[in-house]
Amino acid sequence: MTILHPAFTILFAIMIMFSFNEVYRDQPKKSALPIWIIAVIMIALTGFRDYVGADYPVYKSMYAIYFPSLDFSQLVDKMLFRQSNLDIEWMYVMLNKFVFMFGGPFQTFTLVSVCISIGIKLWTYQKDSAYPAFSAVLFFFPSFFIADNGHMRQALGMTMCILSYQFIKERKLIWYLLTIYIAYGFHKSAIIFLPAYWLVLVPLTSAQIFYLIVTSIILSPFHVYDLFGGFLGSLNLQDVSNGYNGYIDSEDKASSFMDGVMILNSFVLIAYNKQASSKIWYYEYMRNIIVVGVCLYFIFRDNPVFSTRLVGVYISFSPIVIANVVASLEGNKKRFWHLFFVAFMVFYYFVFANFQGAKGRFTPDTYHNVLWDF
């Protein structure tokens, strides 16, 4: 039986304990201490990792060799959409160059990167989730490992999209567009999140959510995304290495598992739409984002790159939505669904460890961290 490194396993157990305290506590006010304990541990395990994650080797070589050779004028051309030979997003290169200018090993950049990506996500959980630690549990597999520990460009882009949710709620269009522009500067796939500002305003009943998802499932075999092949191709979704796609290939072999995750999320959204909408502030906004993500997943299902990379930014809101749905329930029903999702994530632990643990170097014999590897 394959397991993850004890550091990840212990962190997972700590998060689960915090989540039980949230759901079973008597005090209505949530504490910020658990989520920041989780954040510090996550940042330490991710920021100081050494040759861990699918794209780590190639990003490390680019940090020290390729990025320093690029002139800032090339980045300006890229950020202003001028003609440019730069093949990688300008904001990611800019962050690399600024960190490199201050010296230090590649772990300096990974630390800065995850302080942004993990810090903002967990801050958002604390702000918008009724159960922040429970949201962190739901985020752990697979996003934390595949994105934050693997494909850092997309992790940063997705994180900026999550940050933009604050401006969606406040209806601050200019700030929203600026945040999406920065997200696009980290990873082109973030542009697909642009319509979210307006999509959150669409009223949806449980029946309408059901029909939208069923329609998306029916459309899946027809590859309707081919109609937008030019636009989707322009997003350049392939990575600088094949590491990330190795993750996708592995999960695709057990891929009915991801279908099951989406169907489970769909059931929860449909069954408890009324309760959550009446009790959770701005629930309709975050619900619409997840509904779009589930629909896109099924529409893109036959394309493993589109169904993960393009859908990821919408699905990244599911830890907040699921935790808020559970919080909107009462008594034993709340405890049942919390226990169900915790058990599901424990099961996901072993699925992830078996299919992707060794590939990503997250197992006891492959994971290394400069904090204790001298």
TrEMBL record:
Keyword Signal appears in the UniProt entry: no
Name of the featured protein: EpsG family protein
Pfam families in alphabetical order: EpsG (PF14897)
Top-level taxonomic group: Bacteria
Bilayer-crossing regions: 6-24, 31-49, 98-123, 129-147, 173-197, 209-235, 280-299, 311-329, 335-352
Species of the source: Epilithonimonas bovis DSM 19482
Keywords of the record: Membrane, Transmembrane, Transmembrane helix
